[in-house]
Amino acid sequence: MKGLRENGHDVRLCYYDFSPTGHRCRFVDGQVIQDYGTGIWAGLRQRLSYDGIYDYCLREGIEFVYARCFQNANPWLIRFFRRLRQTGIRAVTEIPTYPYDEEFRNFSPKERMQLKVDQLFRHRLYQYMDAMVTFSDATEIFGQRTIRISNGVDFDSIPLHSPLTSHPSPLHLIGVAEVHAWHAFDRVMAGIGEYKGSTQVYFHVVGGVHPNTMKHVFKPIIEKYGLQDRVVFHGQLFGEALDAVFNQCQFAIGSLGRHRSGITVIKTLKNREYATRGIPFIYSEQDSDFDQQPYVLKAPADESPVDIQQIIDFMASFTMRPEEIRKTVEHLTWKIQMQKVVDAIVG
How far apart are CA 306 and CA 221, in angstroms? Predict the structure, then answer.
């Protein structure tokens, strides 16, 4: 939104949430545009009725709708976007991760059923888009042309990294994510366990971890190698608390398991946030914005433990300052990335 506004556009945010009274509502910038009420029927209506958004678009003279994919294609969304197109309103859908079907492999039966519904209707839904926005290299998604951009960053909201020490002993690693299998933080823990050198290595995990992942994936590795004091789970952190943990660490962990969900090429937001902070990092996918950067290490896209000695050796000779790293991603601001979308639609 900020990137579009910086390019001179009038932008409104439409979203679904609960009101202070517990009603299920559709909002635009904090104002209710459709109140579905409460109870089971209200939950059903919010999935079937998009009339409030449609009426708002006509009333306010909206010219362009930027939607984010929630893997929820259905006949009612099809009807909504078909009606938008009939009025001349242009629309795109951004798919943050593509392909995404394999990500549902370990999800609940209910979520897998929702994916089945999405698979039935998504090709028809996206016929009514002007394009799909993707961070992949795909030229076509579900039968629709793509606009290929990079995940953007906002320099104003991400402070520069100020490490307490750049010396690699002890080495503090940080991984920030709402943790899923494709982050493969288990590879880092196994790597620390397998490491036989003299450097003390700590891994700070910031973000939510599902209890099943903790119990069945992380805990066995931690107990096997005796890592109870070297893997620190901070939970969700924001603002100064997050900055403090970053500054305690010298090196960051990106995604190390995108191959687990069948993805080879992706431009993740986390890589860009790390670079904007100015901290070196490692990942395993293909990301053309960073694959050749001197502050990046590439891990193999497999199940092997992360080579901790490689990180230690890398950091021992690493001299780039945080501001130098940040300068390499100036072209990845949301202002520049969103203008690419507008140019591709308006021409």
Answer: 13
Sheet hosting strand 14-18, strand order edge to edge: 14-18, 24-28, 31-37
Question: How far is it, in rounded angstroms, from Cα 297 to Cα 326?
Answer: 17
Looking at residue 11, what DSSP letter applies? -
CA atoms within 13 A on the CB side of 53: 25
User: Which one, of 257, 287, 336, lies nearest residue 137 by Cα?
Assistant: 287
Q: Which residues pair with 308 in a beta bridge?
A: none
DSSP per-residue codes, 248-295: H-SEEE--S-GGGGT--B---HHHHHHHHHT--EEE-SB-TTTTT-TT
Token pair 């306010």 in the structure block, residue: 60
Cis peptide before 220 (omega within 30 of 0): no
Structure token digits, residue 319: 């001299």
Q: What DSSP letter does each residue of 139-207 carry, written as one string?
A: SEETTEEEEE-PPPB-GGGSPPP--S----SSEEEEEESS--GGG-HHHHHHHHHH--SSS-EEEEEES
CA nearest 321: which of 280, 274, 291, 269? 280
Query: What is the full per-residue pLDDT of the chain (347 aa) written as tens digits?
Result: 999 999 999 999 999 999 999 999 999 999 999 999 999 999 999 989 999 999 999 999 999 999 998 888 999 999 999 999 999 999 999 998 888 888 887 788 888 888 899 999 999 999 999 999 999 889 999 999 999 999 899 999 999 999 987 666 799 999 999 999 999 999 999 999 999 999 999 999 999 999 999 999 999 999 999 999 999 999 999 999 999 999 999 999 999 999 998 889 889 999 999 999 999 999 999 999 999 999 999 999 999 999 999 999 999 999 999 999 999 999 999 999 999 999 999 86
**Cβ atoms within 10 Å, residue 159:** 17
107-113 contact pairs (CB < 8 A, 24+): none
CB 128 within 8 A of CB 82: yes
